[in-house]
Amino acid sequence: MIFAVCNPANSPESQISLALQILCGFSVAEIADAFLSKPETIKKRLLRARANLRNDRFQTGPLLPAEVQSRLDVVLRTLYLLFNEGYFSKSGNILIRKDLCSEAMRLTHMLAENPLTNARQVQALLALMCYQSSRFDARLNDHGHTVLFEAQDPNLWDRALIDRGNYYLVNACSGNAVSKYHIEAGIAYWHTTPPETVKWAHILHLYNQLIVTEYSAATALNRTFAYAKVYGNEAGLVEAEKLGLNGNTYYHALLGYLYTPLSTTQASEHYRRAIELSKSPAEVQTLERECARLAGVTQ
Question: From which residue to which does the signal peptide run (predicted)?
Fold first, then answer.
């Protein structure tokens, strides 16, 4: 069904939006978050997409092999966004929705098992999902609060999933083509090694590739974090200021993190600004804990 909904009668963005709503049960707000867009824009997009499918005499029957392969990239993007919403949910009080991640992995695994759709980028996406899922139990503490990577207990990581990720990534790299999923899987791989052994220079190199392959605010912020790990917080702040993402929650959260060892006052200001911008109650709780921790430091 997902291939049927991803009909070229619509733009790729409209295909993905419709698939996320019809097949994945996403609300308009959740789709807007996935695209970093406004709900009203998504509503109009969905209305046009449905109308286009009706005009195109939408069919749910079997597709020709060429049709399946031509729609694969959009299907993968849909599954990628489905997994992302589960991995870092922006709705409600739940930070991780394992049900969404499991469904995205199940569907991607089906693609990997089908000779018609078992492309290198499918293997790379599956590797990425395995690596990210391997750290679920370490990402939240007993109170359901976020545990940052550097504070995670590697003993809680799922080694079986990491091994599966390694298997799929090796398969994905057997050809010459490199997709965004290959690069993100490489970054995720380094996050399955103990924090003290992570090679941040390698991660920065991968982010430099990713930001050229497909720019996004999230990629730019993550690249800046890696840059600070390699060159120091002051250098990271210089890079961050180039982004000019003043209306972005994660921009201010990053600045709060970078300022923490340099100026607790400025760090607190940016964390408070991040709280004002955040739409996620669970995210707000995490940011408030950072503010409280800094208040304790300055007392």
Answer: none
